Automatic annotation (TrEMBL):
Family of the protein in this entry: Belongs to the TACO1 family.
GO molecular-function terms, A-Z: DNA binding
PANTHER family, per database record: TRANSLATIONAL ACTIVATOR OF CYTOCHROME C OXIDASE 1
UniProt-recorded name of the protein: YebC/PmpR family DNA-binding transcriptional regulator
Residues of the TACO1/YebC-like N-terminal domain: 6-71
Domain TACO1/YebC-like second and third: 82-240
Stored SUPFAM superfamilies: YebC-like
Organism encoding this protein: Synoicihabitans lomoniglobus
Source superkingdom: Bacteria
């Protein structure tokens, strides 16, 4: 999925909860700006609200961020979404989403980080990824058929998901990752919740179509590079073709 590198550094992420929550609030505002304040009609906003709730962001903060992004009230948001396409060390394709109120500041700073990855930014590498809805969920009944659930929920595909891949999946539960059309993220997540699944992730993202073979040392180098990107205040999401 290109996100597993984060799990190995979970302790670092946990120690930066304030930064993490700040990014979620920013994501709420940008999602509302791009697609409007109705979560039922805006799958990106729905996914952001779900993420905010799981991070214990209060309802008041969520609603204020959505209003700001949608331009409701006096507090208008001045924020842009920038997507960078490039490569980590060892030719690992990377897509970075950044939210910023100053494009002239963020763009050169992210370019500097990519130059440290040797290969730097590319003209376009989105063709190496699928842009989809991603729903990760767990079920207490380990005998349930996730393929049947995927069909019933309206997902396009599924894959098993273990606690090692997502530590929000209980070790004694059945875990699965469901891939959907971006506009179906809300519907699939809702169906799963209504049918006994605990949804731990619901977001719109990029899934790599192929992964380069890496040694353990190379994978560690890639992970360090991706973490440096993730640590930038304006970087919201990092997607990489690494298992």
């Amino acid at each position: 999925m290109g996100r597993q590198w984060l799990h190995a550094k979970r302790a670092i992420v946990n120690n930066k909860k304030g930064q993490f929550v700040g990014k979620i609030v920013k994501e709420l505002s940008v999602a509302a700006k791009l697609g409007g304040p109705d979560a039922d009609a805006n799958p990106r906003l729905f996914a952001a609200i779900e993420k905010a709730r799981k991070a214990s962001v209060t309802r008041e903060v969520i609603e204020r961020a959505v209003r700001k992004g949608a331009g409701i009230g006096d507090d208008k948001m001045v924020m842009d979404l920038i997507v960078f396409e490039g490569y980590a060390p060892h030719k690992v394709a990377v897509i970075v989403e950044a939210y910023t109120d100053n494009v002239q500041r963020t763009t050169p700073e992210v370019r500097v980080l990519f130059r440290k990855g040797v290969l730097g930014l590319a003209g376009s590498n989105k063709f190496l990824f699928e842009h989809v809805g991603i729903v990760e969920a767990a079920h207490a009944d380990t005998g349930i058929d996730p393929e049947e659930a995927a069909i019933e929920a309206g997902a396009n595909d599924f894959a098993p998901l273990s606690a090692d891949e997502n530590d929000d999946i209980p070790a004694d539960h059945l875990g699965a990752r469901f891939l959907t059309e971006r506009t179906d993220t809300h519907a699939v997540s809702t169906w799963l919740t209504q049918n006994g699944w605990s949804v731990v992730t619901a977001e719109i993202g990029y899934v790599a179509k192929m992964f380069p073979d890496l040694t353990d040392v190379q994978r560690e180098e890639v992970g360090e590079f991706l973490q440096a990107l993730e640590d930038h205040d304006d970087v919201q999401r990092v997607w990489a073709a690494v298992r």
